[in-house]
Amino acid sequence: MKRFFCFLAVTLSLSTALKAQDAYYDVYALDTLRNYDIDVIEVTTTNATRTTPVAQDNLTKESLIRSAYGADMPTALALTPSIIATNETGIGIGATAIRLRGTDATRINVTINGVAMNNPDSHSMYWYDTPDLISSVGTVQVQRGAGVSTNGTGAFGGSVSMTTDAMSTEFGGSASLSYGSYNTNKQGVHISSGLMRDHWVVDARLTHIGSDGYIDRGATDLKSYMLQAGYYGSNTKVKFLSFGGSAKTYLTYNGVSRKDMERYGRRYHDSGQYVTSDGPFVLEDGTHVAYYDDQTDNYLQFNNQLVLNHRFNNRWQLNATLFYTYGYGYYNQYKDDAWLSSYLNLSTSIEQADLIRHKLMYNHLGGINASASYSSRNIDLTFGGSYSYYTCPHWGTLSWVDGMEQGDVAGRWYDNDVVKHDGNIFARADWTVMRGLMDNELHIFGDLQYRYVGYKAWGTNDNSIWGDEGVYMQPINVDKQYNFFNPRAGISYIAHRHNVFASAAVAHREPTRSDFTDRYMFSADDTEPQPERLIDFEVGYTYTAPRIVVGVNLYYMLYHNQLVATGMVNDGDDALNTNVARSYRRGVELMASWKVAKWLTLSANATLSQNKIRDYVDELKDSPTYGENLGDMTISYSPSVMGSLMADFHVGGFSALWHTQYVGKQYFTNNEIDALSLDAYCVTNLNLGYTVTTNSEQKVRFGIAINNLFSTLYESNGYGYSYMWDGVRYDDAFYFPQAPINVLANVTINF
User: Fold this and answer.
1) FRET partner for 623 with CA separation of 20 to 30 A, picked from 17, 122, 176, 569?
2) Is 70 exceeded by the pLDDT of residue 30?
3) Who contacts 172 (Cβ-Cβ below 8 Å, separation ≥6)?
4) What is the pTM of this model?
């Protein structure tokens, strides 16, 4: 790590020294820089450009505004090729996630202003931890595949690079109100100071989002803020950002089985359910049950960033970001007839009893990103690095146990700590080899990254293990270091309307916390999970004409030691993963857009793919086929077909966006079992808007989002697992049903 810090110091000092050496210093560029910087994003090191040989899509601000009535960011991301949005509450708010080319949230790197947002422990991006982020984002770029080098965990399916919205030079703001089905509502206010004393801008946003959810007891309560303060000089910009908020969501992660949907309806789930003689809900067998009313997940997060941008001249630029994130969270859970021997802080002769337990954690994440970039006629060079430090204690307490005195349930029933160091250095070059007539350009791209990960976890986990000598809490003793080298290379050719690229990249990813802690549940030995490696080959072609854009991407993603689902789950219904030696994803992505008229654009995209594990070995304990080679099997949650149709209509102040998405069949495990699968579905959403401009140039926008226009009965996500009992194999599957037609109306006043 000492060498790493030295590299960052050299990067900063070298950039400073080169200021005086550049012979092409452009005074005019400096004179106009202040206005230029305010209008553009601050951090570009994680973004690909037109000439970068990467499959990419950029979301416009307009598309974000259309999705910002109340829905989470995944709703907007699903407009791009190969992305599926999932949701547990049924209406796109709360526990939302995305999959890209079949890969889950733990393998999709998400950054905002270059700062990694994925949880360092689980690698997941929890969108509701930063409520209403979509309203504060200015640009979004989705890179499919390994992409360019980035900060944080490896991009195994792709990456999402976001920047916060640019601050306005004019005084103004907005107020927004939304209301719709299932008591879904949003209230937001935004105000900007405009440019003060030619240098200062302050910008602030407050938002509340609430919903009862389609799923029973699937309520969501989100409060968020965004504060920006910036100083703009002729060649230097300093910007402070703080954003985050609180989230309270009822636990719906257990889903519902097909049988229970038939018995009790699609909105049913049994989280927090307990038996009581006077319970208001009656099960099929006549049992009366009630529900614990505080079965909730609660999280508070503050993200802070200090961004420095300095342009030495029209060729050299320096970016540096200091960041610190604080998070505190817990969830409350009612356990019916729990085995008390699993809670070692209890001293009692009672074997089973109802109880209420709390799982808590708080985390600190801090670090620095720094980079310098050089641009000339024939070469663009960027080099830099980042370092982050993460710590997160986890522990559990009990607030009530039926039949025990309050004083006898004190103490922690598990307690562990995590520390993670994550650092990288990189160098990236885009060399224009040839320039010709008709804007012909040939580019060679190279990107080298070294990444160091140090991960340590210790203490006792929340898993109780029943051994020959009794019950004990699972000990955690993880101390791992990883050194990853991630090279990328490619070529792109631009000839007037044609753009062709080819690339090859290598990416690595370390195991998650649960990959270590949950391994005992299926592994017959003392082996540890291994890091994953991806070799990604991409070829793409785009034809761009005034009215027509057509594109095709071919990809072949080869994995070594990919972590895939075993067909079993842990206590939180999360999939247990194991390494497989060889697997791959290969496919073709098709895109087309036709501007029929000034007021109408039609577009479509489709992804056709094969996603296979070679020589998959059954990992289900006690199964008749345990340890057997089952041949080539489809990777879980990887549809072979997905596609979208869109129509964008706008005349005067009126606009309409039609979006139909088809997603093919998905398996929950890697055994290709129909009983453990998610049916294909096709769903249509319609967004309507009308903008009125007053004499004072104030704008009032009216909008209505109509989701699931044709009331399709479908589930966006689910999970399943298998187990053995008395020599018989059982396959259980659970689903997250989505709401039938539902609406969300909005009015936004801009002043």
Assistant:
1) 122
2) no
3) 191, 192, 194, 750, 751
4) 0.91
